[in-house]
Amino acid sequence: MKWNGYRWEKDEYDEKENQKNTSIGNPSNSSTTNNSSAMITTKEALRAAAIGSSVQKHGPTNSLAEWALAVTNAIATKTLVLKPKGLQSVDAIIALARADAAFQTNQLAKLLGAKEARAAQDDFISQSLKVDRVDASPFSLANFPSSSDKSTILFAIDKTLASESALAFRNFDAQESLIVPGSTVVQFVESLGFKVTEFDTAAIGVTPVTAPPKQTVKPGKAAKVAKEAMPVTAADESAIKIGIDVKKNEDFPSWYTQVLIKTEMMDYYDVSGCYILRPWSFKIWAEIKKFFTAEIEELGIEECYFPMFVSAKALNKEKDHVEGFAPEVAWVTKAGQSDLAEPIAVRPTSETIMYPAYAKWVQSHRDLPIRLNQWCNVVRWEFKNPQPFLRTREFLWQEGHTAFATKAESDREVLDILDLYRRVYEEVLAVPVVPGKKSENEKFAGGLYTTTVEGFIPTTGRAIQGATSHSLGQNFAKMFEITIEDPEQKGAKSFVWQNSWGLTTRTIGVMVMVHGDDKGLVLPPKIANIQVIVVPVGITAKTTAEERAKIYEYVDEVVKLCKPVGVRAKADLRDVYTPGYKFNHWEMRGVPIRLEVGPKDIAKNEVRCVVRHDGSSSQLAFINLAKTLPEKLTKIQADMFEKAKAERDAHVIRLEKFENGFVQTLDSKNLILAPWCERVACEKEVKDRSTRIALAGETADEKAPSMGAKTLCIPFKQPTENPVVPGTHLK
Amino acid sequence: MKWNGYRWEKDEYDEKENQKNTSIGNPSNSSTTNNSSAMITTKEALRAAAIGSSVQKHGPTNSLAEWALAVTNAIATKTLVLKPKGLQSVDAIIALARADAAFQTNQLAKLLGAKEARAAQDDFISQSLKVDRVDASPFSLANFPSSSDKSTILFAIDKTLASESALAFRNFDAQESLIVPGSTVVQFVESLGFKVTEFDTAAIGVTPVTAPPKQTVKPGKAAKVAKEAMPVTAADESAIKIGIDVKKNEDFPSWYTQVLIKTEMMDYYDVSGCYILRPWSFKIWAEIKKFFTAEIEELGIEECYFPMFVSAKALNKEKDHVEGFAPEVAWVTKAGQSDLAEPIAVRPTSETIMYPAYAKWVQSHRDLPIRLNQWCNVVRWEFKNPQPFLRTREFLWQEGHTAFATKAESDREVLDILDLYRRVYEEVLAVPVVPGKKSENEKFAGGLYTTTVEGFIPTTGRAIQGATSHSLGQNFAKMFEITIEDPEQKGAKSFVWQNSWGLTTRTIGVMVMVHGDDKGLVLPPKIANIQVIVVPVGITAKTTAEERAKIYEYVDEVVKLCKPVGVRAKADLRDVYTPGYKFNHWEMRGVPIRLEVGPKDIAKNEVRCVVRHDGSSSQLAFINLAKTLPEKLTKIQADMFEKAKAERDAHVIRLEKFENGFVQTLDSKNLILAPWCERVACEKEVKDRSTRIALAGETADEKAPSMGAKTLCIPFKQPTENPVVPGTHLK
């Protein structure tokens, strides 16, 4: 296969995106500061206290979200100043939280024992802390007037932050961040004489209200009525919303978090970077697993399980490889009360765990191929802000590790697996991806070449790496001495050819981001745990017991006919909830089809069918349901893919010259398809050039990322119209 | 349900058994010592060096195996003294290995760079180390004559031992063990001036030979011929055996290890206590998973995934509970190069991980029940000798965690799940178990009561805990504040009722131990990855290409007809192996049915069928195979269960009086069924009494364990003949 010169350009999602998260303080207000001479700045306070801190420079940022985006290797924080009610003798709470924490001020106040709280007035902040709200930090407590009573101020810190080794604080000009360990912050505040308490953000994640507003709903109009009855106002911090209360296009990070929490896909956990996968998301993973396991079994790949722990020696065997993971490796150093003589790593990936065994098992070509796969958890202790599903410290994945006698066999498998990854995204999750090859720069460390499927999130305009299938060449075989007798040359040894490939729970996050809408989740039928929800409607106070029984019986009939035709259906017969509440409940959770069964439908031997992803509705004849439901689900799956593909395609812009608006095109949420000569120097030049322009502020969008463009992949499917001339590149 | 007073008595397998492992040194030779006055004993050497050590007393032991059994909280070791060939200038190797290490002396020698090695003569040992072979230890190097050249001695240590914090060495009288950290041993030997090297036991696990002896085999007689051609002599250390070369009844620990390694179920790994689950065993786990998942889904239990890490604070919340696990918890304290501010535990079980979330999710009875299950890995860093599948530091399991509004619901589930565990053992693995309730003494720490299924290993006469289903009562709910509004009393809170239940990969080890025979593994059809292996036979040098094609075609037909009737069949068409080799290969791996297809069978439109578990053979008509094969598999499954059950039943002895040979009955590899009044004092008395007798040496079997009998469970199914009078107990 000849790779020629086209590529997709755009910073990858997993590198920098979605650290823009919602904040409760109002950081976009202002970045100007009333720098009075009496004021102690963050930096000065730190210096005065002579406490350990370091500075990370990153250029100007204009909002908390943008700043958080620029912070690397530390946890971006925000400081809230609250005036609580009902906490006797406490006048204000200074709370330090993660910059991306999504909770209501009031919930925090309650957690701390107050009845409720509101954000402190600007006056209060500037008088007590001597800074603007946007610049408040635990260090500004050093400005607190010595004449005032310190016991009236409570300093509260997210307990996961208290134990982090690197917290980032915005410095005044916001061109750099101060990095301080959590324990030092606590120590500093205590040394100033303030009370310190910890709180558990995990305990105040947004949870749905269980008792819904009661209402009577007419059949047919139910959805509309229900929606009107739901609270839709935006910023009422005292009420926890049932539905998603932000728009996907307006505040994507908050939308994403709300969708995951409110649909009960995910929940927070008190170890930073780790999340709970609840059944509503875990079942999606189970469906992906089912599909992929069946396919690789057909290829002759077997399931196994290798230990999670790896000795430092084995881990360090392949230098390039370990360099990529070393800063993120979690080490077990103690068992019970005893120190282990040698620390043991928790697997970040299993190459170095499996290959010593492969070396033992492989003696001759008859022991080949070895084709093993395992589904397991891995740990990568990243210091970037975590993001549910997309970047978590522990995650689930499958990892395949294979060894062949010849390069040809290994090359074939790399592509066979990549095509399965494409099918997981396109056929199972209805998410379009671009299969291609990574540049030398972006390939898997220690491998020969990396193939990838690249996804795209239209809302952010960013690409995201979907899954990768690596040819490791003979590199690991050389390190671990996995050899066979050379078939060509008697007595000589030859090294085996190896691949490794992995697909993670990230798939779920990508699917949510691509398909979700303002109402919440939209699930493609193939992975929907419930494909059809059946809701009885039209039951009022006047409905007789007999009529009600008839409706329930009909609902039951509908559900029963589904299983034999392979449709996963469920009836929502909860009698404490109104139909409107149920409609919202299942819409938010993304169930592909809702069937409503009311007296009028029954009279016509019909059910009302509402499709989640496009809102279309129709009447279906009961008699044909066993045929129409599977057909509808197939069509929904196809339609969702086509819709997502059309949207993605509209954002792929072909460019031959850099001057033709390269950076502006990226900033308009596009990917760029451009010729490339495959030289590293050219790749670097494009990155540098786009970075310079962004830094110089030449772009229209001031929120554009300040880092340059990078290559995503050389797509296997090259444009056939006006094909690129091999060797040419972006002018 | 009324528990009344019967119980099973016998030390549990998982507590003390199967630490008796094979050893290469000849420990049973002698326990007498030529204690000359010139000799420095182990203890004296340690004292002289003033290095850190402690003593564990355990009473007399008569062999290495027996001694290893008595060692707790440390790794039992053995010291080998080898005379290598081909290692220039090295006269002897003193090698320190795990007491249960199963490798050939020669393999070790090769690993260390020698051509081969034999055990040193007694003369050499007594002259150089001044001790008997059985008492050789690294410390006896202190006796090495100062006039001799120390550079001719190489000290080699299993690298996993070098990093262990507690190694056990037999002391001379073998009534106690010396406990020394691995690093101290190395330091001590170095301080004496000897060269020290490490070796990797994982690299010399027994592996099957890939190129078998060539032979011509006649059809029909193939099995016999092949067996004769296989090496069957016992102690030839220079040859690695293809088949199992010890008898199950003669050396059970070696037999077990060989079965696991040679059938490629398992392999060693270089982190102590962790093992590799290869496809041949992992597929058994997958079958168990499939059965259990389908059953609990029917009960309404959902799959999820909670993080692996738990903060010290959450872990310590329930005191009784954490006490049970604290000494075995693995702690992550570093990420990359940074120390974590607070250590994080790796889950030993997930009660304390899940229940804070349950507290958040449960507000009213409408949020109940919560019924979640996850399949995951857990870590319990035990210091007892590890045992593949039965006791490993990392293992796989499912853990169910549920919460209910009422005790009645929770009680029902405890038994529903226990019955599923019974069915996993009895219906899936064909292993009989006794369902019952644990005594107060033996229940899960922090719970209300524990139910269990208890298995039995006839070869050792020991019981083994199969799986447990716990009622946690309201204890955890109180600790984690999982409450609902009391349905009885408005405004009041009531705590939820919780259960937890788990089934581990131990199931696989139990199945191997119960069904395996001298030829190797015997798999019940339900979990056999290959249920039917089809082997072409009767192909000789005279066979024409046409005849050969006909045989292969017939084999292919046989395999093809299996899939549609749900039979997992495979043809072994490897042309480098003889039929005899293949017969042994698949017999050792436990495949339930072997079909042989040769010219004579084809002529009669038949296949020859050989059943693994009883060795019976018959001719089957090809035309009926689609019917007879599934029937045969069903019968094999039933027969294997009945056979195992009859054997178990024969070892359950009912006793009313202690004097009627209580200890002798246990020592004869039996379980005792005895009345019990359910008072803790009586349970303790029986234990003490049996311990005293064992210690006093009153029992016939001198290898009897020196610890007393303990209760296994109060069986739910009580004897109907001559039923026990409630309140009575063993006299």
Automatic annotation (TrEMBL), chains A, B:
Residues 282-524 form the Aminoacyl-transfer RNA synthetases class-II family profile domain. GO terms for biological process: prolyl-tRNA aminoacylation. It comes from Physocladia obscura. Its EC number is 6.1.1.15. NCBIfam families: proS_fam_I (TIGR00408). GO terms for cellular component: aminoacyl-tRNA synthetase multienzyme complex; cytoplasm. Belongs to the class-II aminoacyl-tRNA synthetase family. This is proline--tRNA ligase.
